[in-house]
Amino acid sequence: MISENIKAIREKKGIKQSDIARALGIEPTNYPRIEKREKRLTIEMLEKIAEVLGVSILELLGYNSSPQPERIKELEGKVIRLRTANKVLRHKNDLLYSMASLFRKSANELIDKENKRFEEEEEDFEELKRQANELGIDLSDIEKD
User: What does each C-alpha distance from 125 to 15, 130, 145 come to in angstroms?
Assistant: First the structure.
C-alpha cells in the first residue's frame, strides 16, 4: 500500500523516479523496486521520500492530509519508538561485534600461549633426553605425554 501511495503521489506531482532516487542516494535503476514492493523501506527512506514529494509520512502511509490529532500523535509515537528501537538494535549489533572481536582476540591469545607452552615442554623434553644420553641412559623408547 505504501509503495502504491508513493507512486500515485509522485505521478500526481510529476516528479521523476530518478529525482527521488538521487535524494535517497540510490541508483535510479534501483528505485522502481521500491514502487514494485521489491525493496524494503526504512524510516529514513520514508522521511526522505516524503520530503521530496512535499507530503507527510502519514500521507505516504495512506492517511488523508487531515487525520485526527490523536491518531497523528499515536503514529508519531510509533515512529519515535521505531527510531529508538532501530538505534538500540544498531547499538546491540555494535556491542555483539565488539564482543565477538574480543572473544576472537582472547581465543587467539590462549592458543598462542598454549602453543608456546607446548614448544617449551618439547624443548625441555629434548634437553632431558640429551642430558640422559650424556649420562649413558637411553630414553629413546620413552615418549612424552
Answer: 80, 9, 10
Put simply, whether the predicted model's pTM sits higher than 0.85 gets the answer no
- The topology under which CATH files domain 2-60 is 434 Repressor (Amino-terminal Domain) (1.10.260)
Radius of gyration (Cα) for the chain, nearest Å? Answer: 33
Can you list the residues of the chain whose pLDDT is less than 50?
A: none
List of residues 6+ apart from 99 with CB closer than 8 A = none
- What nine digits make up the cell of 56? 507527510
- DSSP assigned state of 1: -
Q: What is the DSSP string of 23-76?
A: HHTS-TTTTHHHHTT-SPPPHHHHHHHHHHHTS-HHHHTT--SS--HHHHHHHH
